[in-house]
Amino acid sequence: MRKLHVTFAGTGTTVSRWIRDRRLKVCYRELCAAASTKTVTDVAYKWGFNDAAHFSRTFKQAFGVTPRSLRIGSAVPALDDY
């Protein structure tokens, strides 16, 4: 495990932050999916976020919009910007 942390040392991020960012991006894609009938909480729990409020705060900090507003389509910034 130490080798993994050393590998990330020069990247400007940590292993845990990289994993969290990947999970958030997958959540973003699922929330944007037009055919998705899952709630924000369903998506958050599916990808390992065990607290809906924490997920919402983290998501908004990462993307500048709430997961709910993204889910209902009122705000859809391009994922490529992140």
Q: How does this structure look, described?
A:
By secondary structure, the chain is an all-alpha fold. It is 60% helix and 0% strand. The chain has 5 helices and no strands. The longest helix is centred in the first third of the chain and has 18 residues, at 15-32. The protein starts with a helix and ends in an 11-residue tail after the last helix.
How many extended strands?
0
Strand content: under 5%
- The quaternary structure here is single chain
Give me the secondary-structure category.
mainly alpha
**What is the helix content?**
55-70%
Largest sheet: none
Tell me, rounded to a whole number, the average pLDDT.
84
Helix tally?
5
Radius of gyration over C-alpha positions, nearest whole angstrom: 14 Å
Question: Which terms summarize this structure?
Answer:
single chain, 82 residues, mainly alpha, 5 helices, 60% helix, elongated
Helix-strand layout with pairing:
Layout: H1 2-8, H2 15-32, H3 40-46, H4 52-63, H5 67-71
Question: Briefly, what is this?
Answer:
With 82 residues, the protein is an all-alpha fold. The chain is 60% helix and 0% strand.
